[in-house]
Automatic annotation (TrEMBL):
CDD domains: GT4_PimA-like. Residues 165-327 form the Glycosyl transferase family domain. The lineage of its organism: Bacteria, Pseudomonadati, Fibrobacterota, Fibrobacteria, Fibrobacterales. The chain crosses the membrane at residues 47-69. Keywords: Membrane, Transferase, Transmembrane, Transmembrane helix. InterPro entries: Glyco_trans_1, Glycosyltransferase_grp1. It comes from the Bacteria. PANTHER family: SULFOQUINOVOSYL TRANSFERASE SQD2. This is Glycosyltransferase involved in cell wall biosynthesis. It holds the Pfam family Glycos_transf_1. GO terms for molecular function: glycosyltransferase activity.
Amino acid sequence: MFNIIMHCSTLDTKGGMVSVTKNYLNYHNWKEFKIKFIPTHFDTNKYIVMLYFGIRYIQILFAIIFGHYNIAHLHTAERGSFWRKNFLLKTYHKFGIKVVMHHHAAEFEKFYASCSLKKKEKICKALAETDMNIVLSERLVPMIKDKEPNAKVEVLYNAVQTFSENPYNTDAKGILFLGRLGKRKGIFDLLNVIKQLDDKIPKEIKFYLCGDGEIESVNERMATLNIGHRVSHVGWIDGFQKEAIFQNTMINVLPSYNEGLPMTILETMARGIPNVSTRIASIPEVIKDGENGFLITPGDVESLANCIEKLVIDTALRNNFSNASYELVTRNFSLDANIEKLKNIYKSILPNVDGTIK
């Protein structure tokens, strides 16, 4: 039996990193692997975060002493998240426990560039000392290797639940934005697009703006643009709401400026929902422009409007994109395949275990 201890934010925290973690914890077929999860963060002010981490750190020490763990799997982003995981990295290595650092940061390069020389040296040292760094796509390998050539890196794409048949609703009338409501995700560009399309698309087409973040600013901008009649929902959605909205989604739109590999794109593509997103980070490895979705340059509001309008009007194109999206995610991004590779990554860093990464 391999005992894995895993850390990220609390499971009610919003975001793709937690979605990935929940997929792992809910998976049914770990066989010889057993996972214990201890959260190390939740969204609040930094002083409470520090106190919370201190309490959890004591729990982690007890787990280390009595749990006989082989590997610590640390899900990390940038800034405070990285420094907390760096502290845990050093702790686990003192006890002879191997560490996997799973990088989900959308703004790691920006974070690194903002650091002092001394902090950059600490980041590079952490990357080198980590037994295996996991990144979300081939395009993100240089994010690690350019800083620390000796770092061990493996690519593990995010994965999602897949379906035996394409569940896409061809009669759906909703356009979905699923992510944190803020400038980085391009929500204000989308609001301008909704205004542009108001007299160009059927009146029954509604937009779902689903996420936490700058909800008040979004509502204020909607009022200024007078587009409230086009929007059916603003704010976070839970599991039941999410499924209901997926069932009525014709297009998913994510006009982000910075990303890794967004879970919302994979989740919607698995359901056959065509995507319009931006040509950044790992997104072009999933969305093939003109084949299963559309890609634009971040901030190109005119192209965003044109792509959405084209998909709304052209039913045949939308259905072709739906089938291509469903087939790609089912083939390459299933949770079963993802976890099999993760098991091999675990085995590869353990002594006296023949771990073959496929």
